[in-house]
Protein backbone atom coordinates (compact mmCIF):
# COMPACT_ATOMS: atom_id res chain seq x y z
CA UNK A 1 0.00 0.00 0.00
CA UNK A 2 1.36 3.42 -0.94
CA UNK A 3 1.23 6.25 1.51
CA UNK A 4 0.38 9.82 0.61
CA UNK A 5 3.09 12.38 1.29
CA UNK A 6 2.09 15.94 2.09
CA UNK A 7 5.61 17.16 2.85
CA UNK A 8 7.34 18.64 -0.21
CA UNK A 9 10.85 17.67 0.93
CA UNK A 10 9.79 14.10 1.53
CA UNK A 11 8.12 14.01 -1.86
CA UNK A 12 11.23 15.27 -3.65
CA UNK A 13 13.46 12.77 -1.86
CA UNK A 14 11.26 9.80 -2.67
CA UNK A 15 12.18 7.58 -5.58
CA UNK A 16 8.59 6.74 -6.48
CA UNK A 17 7.53 6.99 -10.08
CA UNK A 18 5.64 10.10 -11.04
CA UNK A 19 2.36 9.46 -12.78
CA UNK A 20 1.19 12.04 -15.27
CA UNK A 21 -2.33 12.28 -16.54
CA UNK A 22 -2.75 13.21 -20.16
CA UNK A 23 -6.39 13.62 -21.01
CA UNK A 24 -7.23 14.30 -24.64
CA UNK A 25 -8.87 17.68 -25.15
CA UNK A 26 -12.29 17.40 -26.76
CA UNK A 27 -13.65 20.81 -27.76
CA UNK A 28 -17.31 21.57 -27.17
CA UNK A 29 -19.18 22.45 -30.35
CA UNK A 30 -21.24 25.24 -28.79
CA UNK A 31 -18.12 26.93 -27.42
CA UNK A 32 -16.35 26.73 -30.77
CA UNK A 33 -19.39 28.26 -32.47
CA UNK A 34 -19.67 30.97 -29.83
CA UNK A 35 -15.99 31.90 -30.05
CA UNK A 36 -16.26 32.12 -33.83
CA UNK A 37 -19.34 34.30 -33.49
CA UNK A 38 -17.35 36.68 -31.28
CA UNK A 39 -14.59 36.94 -33.89
CA UNK A 40 -13.74 34.67 -36.85
CA UNK A 41 -10.87 32.32 -36.18
CA UNK A 42 -11.29 32.10 -32.41
CA UNK A 43 -13.38 28.93 -32.65
CA UNK A 44 -10.80 27.27 -34.88
CA UNK A 45 -8.05 28.22 -32.42
CA UNK A 46 -10.16 26.78 -29.58
CA UNK A 47 -10.39 23.56 -31.60
CA UNK A 48 -6.58 23.50 -31.84
CA UNK A 49 -6.40 24.47 -35.52
CA UNK A 50 -4.13 27.50 -35.11
CA UNK A 51 -3.18 27.75 -38.78
CA UNK A 52 -6.75 27.99 -40.02
CA UNK A 53 -7.74 30.14 -37.04
CA UNK A 54 -4.97 32.64 -37.71
CA UNK A 55 -5.86 32.78 -41.40
CA UNK A 56 -9.54 33.40 -40.62
CA UNK A 57 -8.60 36.01 -38.02
CA UNK A 58 -6.45 37.98 -40.50
CA UNK A 59 -8.99 37.59 -43.31
CA UNK A 60 -11.79 38.87 -41.08
CA UNK A 61 -9.67 41.83 -40.03
CA UNK A 62 -8.99 42.74 -43.68
CA UNK A 63 -12.67 42.39 -44.56
CA UNK A 64 -13.70 44.55 -41.60
CA UNK A 65 -11.21 47.26 -42.54
CA UNK A 66 -12.49 47.29 -46.13
CA UNK A 67 -16.16 46.85 -45.22
CA UNK A 68 -16.96 50.43 -46.21
CA UNK A 69 -17.06 49.02 -49.73
CA UNK A 70 -20.22 47.07 -50.58
CA UNK A 71 -18.68 43.82 -51.90
CA UNK A 72 -16.34 43.17 -48.93
CA UNK A 73 -19.27 43.71 -46.58
CA UNK A 74 -21.26 40.89 -48.22
CA UNK A 75 -18.17 38.70 -48.30
CA UNK A 76 -17.59 39.44 -44.60
CA UNK A 77 -21.14 38.44 -43.66
CA UNK A 78 -20.97 35.20 -45.67
CA UNK A 79 -17.51 34.42 -44.33
CA UNK A 80 -18.59 35.06 -40.72
CA UNK A 81 -21.52 32.64 -41.05
CA UNK A 82 -19.32 29.97 -42.67
CA UNK A 83 -16.71 30.47 -39.95
CA UNK A 84 -19.24 29.78 -37.17
CA UNK A 85 -20.57 26.69 -38.98
CA UNK A 86 -17.08 25.31 -39.64
CA UNK A 87 -15.90 25.70 -36.03
CA UNK A 88 -19.11 24.17 -34.65
CA UNK A 89 -19.16 21.19 -37.02
CA UNK A 90 -15.46 20.44 -36.52
CA UNK A 91 -15.78 20.41 -32.73
CA UNK A 92 -18.93 18.29 -32.93
CA UNK A 93 -17.32 15.68 -35.19
CA UNK A 94 -14.15 15.70 -33.07
CA UNK A 95 -16.16 14.90 -29.93
CA UNK A 96 -17.84 12.02 -31.76
CA UNK A 97 -14.42 10.63 -32.65
CA UNK A 98 -14.50 11.49 -36.31
CA UNK A 99 -11.19 13.00 -37.39
CA UNK A 100 -12.56 15.39 -39.97
CA UNK A 101 -10.43 17.95 -41.77
CA UNK A 102 -12.47 20.18 -44.09
UniProtKB/TrEMBL annotation:
Record's keyword terms, sorted: Membrane, Transmembrane, Transmembrane helix
Entry keyword annotation includes Transmembrane: yes
Membrane-spanning residues: 55-85
Name assigned to this protein: TM2 domain-containing protein
Native species: Methanolobus sediminis
